[in-house]
Design goal:
Blueprint: E1 3-14, E2 30-40, E3 43-49, E4 57-60, E5 65-68, E6 70-72, H1 87-91, H2 96-101, H3 106-115, H4 118-134, E7 137-143, H5 150-166, E8 170-178, H6 189-204, E9 210-214, H7 222-234, E10 238-243, H8 251-257, E11 262-265, H9 271-280, E12 283-286, H10 288-294, H11 301-306, E13 311-313, H12 327-338, H13 342-349, H14 351-356, E14 374-377, H15 382-387, E15 394-399, E16 402-406
Parallel strand pairs: 1-4, 1-5, 6-7, 7-8, 8-9, 9-10, 10-11, 11-12, 12-13
Antiparallel strand pairs: 1-2, 2-3, 5-14, 14-15, 15-16
The protein binds N-(iminomethyl)-L-glutamic acid and fe (iii) ion.
Length: about 400
């Protein structure tokens, strides 16, 4: 399909533009009925309603909803093993940070990841990416952070580079060597921060675009995080920060001040953190499925929208706090628990998510000149995809103008 038209679109719903939307703009989604999209060489060439332009090939959207491909701006895609053995502890309400402090949690996954070869990690992540695509994700971010040694962190980043080339989803890489202090440095954490700054960041700079740090009690302090993110910035990696997931220790305020692109989680963000993000134009990358899975509170997304902060949703896919990659589920939870409208949720998983990983100029909306990353849904409108849950409502997935997953024709 070099050039073709998607016709019989009952409703085309998309945010518009090449930058993150905030405030009232978060919910301003263009709705076009009886629409068509023409595609040429992987890009969107035209969008309209009514009379369909002539084309060699047409694809019938069956009168369904069409949206941009989903963008997942926060995943921990590459890791070894799973952690179902922690379920019993979770049911006894053992706190997440206590599991980590006892050498489990992230550190358990570090052991499985170090034991896995690059090829094994790639095979495992390939299965995930295939399912993510079927669920409508056409671009995702992938963090390292389960290696925690120079060689193992580079193994994870190399795997992500290869995965990007092996399958349709575009993968944006983030170095997260400061995800936890590994056991061999537990008595000398300063030496680990030195290793991250002096060895890992320079080596990661060629393979990743972003650097993230877990700024949290039991992980990295605000001062350690600041040092790591500033040195990353010097090396050309744009800063991000896992902050206010469990305890508000000031990470959001610091990250916004040093120019972080986004802060992640924000479950317990305080008014000063909201004020700092609003002042510095930081994107709030909220992770609704993680709150659900940790049985934690929900980030104050409405307050952040009111403060003029663009809100994006990520899956946070990882083997501990959020073993799902369904952004459709994130939309359901975002709608019901953050009290965001379906339009605001759509922007959160498309244009704002793209902005959080530096891709808003080329993906995140259905507009002339952007990549033809397009979803056809088994749903007639936007409300339905936030209202029904626990299913995959994506029928067909186009990536770069090619049908890469799902049904080839409409099934009633
Ligand atoms: O974003 N909080 C830090 N990192 C991940 C969880 C990692 C894990 O539990 O393995 C998160 O929730
Ligand atoms: Fe995360």
């Amino acid at each position: 399909m070099a050039g073709f038209v998607i016709e019989n679109i009952g409703m085309l719903a998309t945010p518009m533009g090449t930058a993150a939307k905030y405030g009232e703009g978060q919910g301003e989604v263009s709705i076009m009925r009886d629409a068509w999209i023409s595609v040429s060489d992987g890009f969107i060439e035209g969008v309209g309603s009514g009379a369909v332009p002539k084309a060699e090939n047409t694809f019938d959207a069956g009168g369904g909803l069409v949206t941009p491909g989903l963008v997942d701006p926060h995943t921990h895609l590459v890791f070894g093993g799973w952690r179902e053995h922690e379920l019993a502890m979770k049911l006894r309400d053992v706190p997440y940070l206590d599991i980590l402090a006892a050498g489990g949690g992230i550190l358990s996954t570090v052991r499985s990841t170090r034991a896995a070869s690059e090829a094994e990690l790639i095979d495992k992540a390939m299965l995930v990416l295939e399912r993510m695509l079927a669920l409508g994700v056409t671009t995702c971010e992938a963090k390292s952070g389960y290696g925690l040694s120079l060689d193992d962190e580079l193994k994870l980043l190399r795997a992500a580079v290869k995965l990007d080339e092996m399958q349709p989803i575009d993968i944006v890489r983030t170095f997260m060597g400061a995800h936890a202090v590994p056991p061999e440095y537990i008595d000398d954490r300063d030496a680990y921060v030195d290793l991250v700054v002096d060895k890992m960041i320079p080596a990661a700079a060629g393979m990743a675009e972003y650097c993230d740090v877990f700024c949290e009690t039991g992980a990295f302090t605000v001062e350690e995080t600041r040092r790591i993110l500033l040195s990353a910035k010097d090396a050309g990696l744009r800063p991000k920060c896992h902050s206010d997931e469990i305890n508000a220790i000031g990470g959001t305020e610091m990250a916004a001040e040093i120019g972080a692109v986004s802060c992640e989680h924000l479950i317990c963000v305080e008014p000063a953190g909201i004020e700092a993000m609003s002042r510095h134009g930081t994107i709030a990358c909220c992770l609704p499925a993680t709150s659900f899975y940790l049985n934690a509170a929900y980030a104050p997304a409405r307050a952040m929208i009111s403060a003029g902060i663009p809100v994006a949703f990520g899956s946070d896919f990882n083997p501990g706090s959020c073993p799902t990659y369904s952004l459709q589920l994130a939309m359901n939870i975002g709608c019901y628990k953050y009290r965001m409208t379906p339009e605001e949720c759509l922007t959160a998983v498309t244009l704002n998510a793209a902005a959080a990983i530096g891709r808003a100029a080329i993906v995140g909306s259905v507009e002339v000149g952007k990549k033809a990353d397009i979803l056809i849904w088994d749903a007639p409108n936007l409300e339905q995809i936030c209202y029904r849950f626990g299913d995959n409502l994506v029928r067909s997935v186009f990536k770069n103008g090619e049908l890469r997953s799902g049904a080839t024709s409409h099934v009633k």
